[in-house]
């Protein structure tokens, strides 16, 4: 289908984009890589009067080292994040998750910030961002504010970004030396996950010293498997110990039932994928 007619704006600064957003309010929509927005427009699930393309705002692109964090610009394409050496060294969980996100074409157009702002519960970036304790920098008419990952994902397709605001960058605390694995369960290649698990662990002398685990598609937002994280600390990185901790992976989750699987099946998958992801991340 062809989208409904809209006006197209392509500002070159965040300030211009915010001014356009302020002027057009509810009638405007931000365009990043367009990989989620364009299908929505083509299906006429949304018909904004104005589309504000962030593609010419250079300050929103790129990845930099900022001391104890890696900072990823919202308009940085998935393919850039995937191959970035800073991300691989200090936030390997993100590199591993992006590798599994859709196909090459979509990774080339889609953006890190666009995927997180879209907040699809089956999206591959929410769980790693949550597990790593990312901070979301959001700019609005009154200036910039920073929102912790725990508060960023509000509900299905809903984040803390206000209607007059733009996500500008994501700060990811460094996890240098941590092992990482993203286990994604799909029916066919390049699909959204039925369930996925983002795990990163720090192992000291064969013992799990710290563990952070995010779950994808186990509720309306990405979730932390906190019971498993606590159960893993101090345990040896062995099959038996990890299996026992992973049994709690579905605690407190509320996964959907759909054509790809019932909620009970997803809960079972979560325990299996957590075990695999933690063992892989800990090099066991
Ligand atoms: C066939 C197909 C398969 C896919 N498979 C996967 C998959 O397996 N895993 C996965 O995670 N994703 C998948 N995706 C989605 C892909 O990751 C998209 O890149 C992503 O969801 C949206 O990013 P985008 O840059 O294209 O944003 P857009 O589509 O341009 O925007 C998405 C939404 O976010 C808003 N937005 C974008 N940027 C900002 C910003 N900076 N500030 C405020 N709001 C903003 C837009 O207004 C819009 O509502 C798939 C997409 C397609 C088409």
UniProtKB/TrEMBL annotation:
Q: Source organism's superkingdom?
A: Bacteria
Q: Where is the FAD-binding PCMH-type domain?
A: 1-177
Q: Which Pfam families match?
A: CO_deh_flav_C, FAD_binding_5
Which keywords belong to this entry?
FAD, Flavoprotein, Oxidoreductase
UniProt entry tagged with the keyword DNA-binding = no
Entry's Gene Ontology molecular function annotations? FAD binding; oxidoreductase activity
**UniProt protein name:** Carbon-monoxide dehydrogenase medium subunit
Species in which this protein is naturally found? Nocardioides szechwanensis
């Amino acid at each position: 289908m062809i989208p409904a007619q809209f006006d197209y704006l392509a500002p070159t600064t965040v300030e211009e984009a915010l001014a356009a957003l302020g002027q057009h309010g509810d009638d405007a929509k931000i365009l990043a890589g367009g990989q989620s927005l364009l299908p929505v427009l083509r299906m006429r699930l949304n018909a904004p009067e104005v589309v504000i393309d962030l593609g010419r705002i250079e300050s929103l692109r790129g990845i930099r080292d900022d001391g104890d964090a890696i900072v990823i610009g919202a308009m940085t394409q998935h393919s850039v994040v995937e191959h970035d050496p800073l991300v691989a060294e200090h936030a390997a969980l993100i590199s591993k998750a992006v590798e599994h996100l859709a196909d090459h074409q979509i990774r080339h157009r889609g953006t890190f910030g666009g995927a997180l702002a879209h907040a699809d519960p089956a999206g591959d970036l929410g769980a790693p961002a949550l597990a790593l304790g990312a901070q979301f920098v959001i700019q609005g008419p009154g200036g910039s504010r920073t929102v912790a990952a725990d508060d960023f994902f509000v509900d299905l397709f809903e984040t803390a970004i206000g209607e007059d605001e733009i996500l500008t960058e994501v700060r990811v605390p460094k996890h240098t030396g941590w092992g990482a694995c993203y286990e994604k369960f799909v029916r066919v290649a390049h699909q959204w996950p039925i369930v996925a698990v983002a795990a990163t662990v720090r192992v000291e002398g064969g013992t799990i010293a710290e563990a952070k685990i995010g779950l994808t598609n186990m509720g309306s937002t990405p979730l932390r498997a906190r019971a498993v994280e606590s159960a893993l600390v101090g345990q040896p990185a062995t099959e038996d110990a990890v299996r026992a901790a992973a049994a709690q992976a579905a605690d407190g989750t509320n996964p959907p039932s759909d054509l790809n699987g019932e909620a009970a099946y997803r809960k079972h998958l979560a325990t299996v994928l957590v075990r695999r992801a933690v063992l892989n991340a800990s090099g066991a």
